[in-house]
Amino acid sequence: MRFHGHSNDEESAKLRKKLFYSGLIILLAGLTFLAVGSFRNVKLETVAEMSDSWIISENLVEGDTYVLDVMSSYQWRDDYTDGYYETPQPVDLMVISPNGGITNLQAFFLARLPTSEWQKSTFPSLVSVEYGSVDSDSLEVDESYPQVRFTVKQGGYYTAIVREETLNWTRGPPRELVLYREVFENQNLYTIFLSTGLVCFFTGFIVSVRGAATVKKTRIKQKKKIERQK
Q1: Which among 154, 155, 111 has a CA at the least distance from the CA of 136?
Q2: SS3 of 221, please?
Q3: If both were cysteines, with which of 16, 46, 88, 145 could 214 make a disulfide (CB 3.0 to 4.6 Å apart)?
Q4: Pairwise CA distance, residues 209 & 9, whole Å
């Protein structure tokens, strides 16, 4: 009878260990789903564009994130070449919110200089942005982004203006102003991965914790049993 009881204890311990390791596997699967679900492809969808203009305006949606790009004109490229600038050149901009609030910023443009006098530099590109005053009631800016990027807190018409009066290293409006909206691709797939990951994670955590606790209790019982037999 003792041998039979000992065999049952061993079988029970094996089952509990399997329960513990199964919980760990489910937990790891959940972490994998969460990791995959955290990566979302973002594409930029054009919502407004203006050519040879100092100003662009559009009705923006609350909660959405937008990117404003300023593209250099041929005149900007020629003046950059003639000035032979080796450091980024500033362009002042302002964004007017629907409530009249103003966000001031400087966009910096850099180009690759020509290697001979017969060549032109590349078109100056927007490489960084520095923000001054920000209308934080209407929008949240992303200071780490190389272009003008902000999330709208208050929906309505926003107007971005390139300030001609402070443009001193070149002249004329930019070739194009383009306003993009960030759109997440495969949103449904992202939601499925995230929800599945959360379910697996918490299920695996509960199962593994219970399995570990049961294994611990079994070991204590076995230890006490061996001590009694001695």
Answers
A1: 154
A2: helix
A3: 16
A4: 20
pLDDT at 229: 55
Residues 56 and 175 sit within 8 Å (Cβ to Cβ) = no
Residues 22 and 46 in one domain: no
Which three-class secondary structure state does DSSP give residue 2? helix
Domain count across the chain: 2
CATH of the domain at 66: 2.60.120
pTM of the model: 0.66
Range of the domain at 192: 2-39+188-229
- 3-state SS assignment for residue 58: strand
Nearest partner of 162 among 150, 171, 153, judged by Cα: 171
- Ranked by mean pLDDT, the top range of 111-115, 147-151, 196-200 is 147-151
The DSSP bridge partners found for residue 92 are 106
58-104 tens-digit pLDDT:
999 999 999 999 999 999 999 999 999 999 999 999 999 999 999 99
Q: What is the DSSP letter of 116?
A: S
Whether 179 and 196 share a structural domain: no
Please report how many Cα atoms fall inside a 13 Å half-sphere around the Cα of residue 32, on the Cβ side: 7
Give the chain's mean pLDDT.
81
Instruction: Render the burial of 158-167: b for 16+ CB within 10 Å, e for the rest.
Output: bebbbeeeeb
| Residue 191 CA, distance from chain mean position | 16
Name which of 224, 89, 58 is nearest 156 in CA terms: 58
Q: What is the reported pLDDT for 118?
A: 85
